[in-house]
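Two entries, shown back to back:
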Amino acid sequence: MRESTLQRINYAMILAIFVTLAVHLATHAFLGVSGYEDSLTYDSVVGRYRAFSTVLTLGVLLIAACFHGLYGLRNILLETRWGARRHRLVSTATRLLGVAMVGWGLRTIVLTTWGV
């Protein structure tokens, strides 16, 4: 994939992070809870996880944050132009790490949502 396309995707992920993080923090501050401490109780957290909107928000936040963070890490590692082989190695490693991180995070969201 071209670098300019990855950069555009990264900009979209930054916007997604801002929106979903604002919604996520609002659910802990004032949306449907009486206070911050109440939002952290087990029953409150599990109750929110059962709502589709929370699952969608956390899923988008997870994917956007993982892409943004790993794209930045990839760029830092590629700044020392060592050739095409290293470029492929770093790109492949960050992709695999991203798949593992998103997979584990989605697994956690699904298990919490369905109470398994």
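entry 2 starts here
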Amino acid sequence: MSTEGPEAPPPPYGRWEQPLPSPTQTPSPTQMPPPPQPPYGYGPPPAWGYAPPPPYGYGPPQAHTQTEGMAIVVLVLSIASFFMFGFGVIMAIVALCLCPSATRNIEASQGTLTGEGFVTAAKAISWVNVALTGIMVIGFIVFFILVAAFDDSEEFSALLVLASLR
């Protein structure tokens, strides 16, 4: 036993056991503590403790985009106009009349409604249908004019024979 006083308590776990040199002495490399190891995984926890848990629920509501219903109707009308002989051009014209309304609704929604591509495709399909119907009507008119002009002549019957050979 020593007469100097009570023994010093052992150092806390993980502390350097050798006494550090005084500030006036230069420490030798054997007296310096080793550098700390870099943390594994995600890094050390924050200095104030653990991170707070995430909030309950699904979080704030997200802005969902939805396709404009009028854009779908316009596209269906324009596609169906090709399959309705005679009545199809009316459907194409109705689709062309509804296109501006669908475009206005999409622009007014500030990004929550989509369907600009549907409206553009419907315009193109409807205009093609109207153009083909116009060409077909002009062809029928020309045909009936030719029938009336060459009613009983042999030239017209020869023209019909040539047309049927193609």
